[in-house]
Design goal:
Length: 256
């Protein structure tokens, strides 16, 4: 198979796929030959992106368990058994005065989308992947999970939680379903529009290319590792997989 069509025959679901990073992931996967389901809360946005990639549009709130389960069933009914979950849906909350004065419901909503939503999607796809003996999961994390003073309390704490969830899940599924958590870098999207123009922006094509590489299976030895779209060369990591495992690299750890 040519590198241009390395995902030929795969079925992928991209949550948060209506715009920004998710939309670009959907385009990249479709360009590599995958059949793609695009899910997000905005009907108009998912219809537009799905139309671009000749995929399936799903209006979906990832915090709704029943809706998530129905969406997975629809993907498999319309496109076939799911090979890749790109759990990308996320949200951010502005905390200009500090997290302690933020409305608790708004604060918790960030966790519902960024953590519960990832959990519900993973929970819905894993049984089928285990039964078929194939599948991969890629979770969109953030440098806010570990960089000091980055982001608001809700967003940073939720991304730290989802990193830990992904790492533990990878260990639980070791040898059966590779699970990855990636950092897309700081990409210009609707969520990051408040960042200054001179911020260290990441080229928007890097995260989709990384997801494509992980979907190909070439990097399965790196399951459970934290991979940055800009600062990590995926081919280099693949070549050094044994070293990364033995030295416990590409992981968020407390060092004393």
């Amino acid at each position: 198979m040519s590198p241009e069509r390395e995902l030929e025959g795969q079925v992928a679901l991209v949550t948060g796929g209506g715009r920004g990073i998710g939309a670009n992931i959907a385009r990249e996967l479709a360009g590599a030959g995958a059949r793609v389901a695009v899910a997000a809360r905005s009907h108009e946005q998912v219809e537009e992106v799905a139309g671009e990639v000749d995929g399936l549009a799903l209006e979906l709130d990832v915090t709704d368990r029943s809706a998530v389960e129905r969406a997975i069933a629809e993907v498999e009914r319309e496109l076939g058994p799911l090979d890749l979950l790109a759990a990308n849906a996320g949200t951010m909350l502005s905390e200009p005065e500090g997290g302690w004065v933020t409305d608790p419901d708004d604060w918790w909503r960030v966790f519902e989308v960024n953590v519960l939503g990832v959990y519900l999607c993973c929970r819905a796809v894993i049984p089928g992947m285990l039964e078929r003996g194939r599948g991969r999961i890629v979770i969109t994390g953030s440098g806010a999970a570990y960089l000091p003073g980055t982001g608001g309390t809700a967003y940073s704490a939720s991304k730290a939680a989802v990193w830990r969830f992904g790492e533990v899940l990878a260990h639980q599924l070791d040898g059966r379903i590779p699970v990855f958590v990636i950092s897309p870098g700081l990409v210009k999207t609707e969520m990051t529009k408040r960042a200054p123009d001179d911020a260290p922006w990441t080229p928007p094509e890097l995260a989709p290319r990384l997801v494509r590489a992980l979907a190909s299976g070439r990097a399965d030895a790196l399951a459970g590792r934290y991979i940055h779209a800009e600062h990590d060369d995926i081919d280099d990591l693949i070549a050094r997989a044994d070293e990364i495992e033995s030295e416990d690299l590409n992981a968020i750890r407390l060092r004393r």
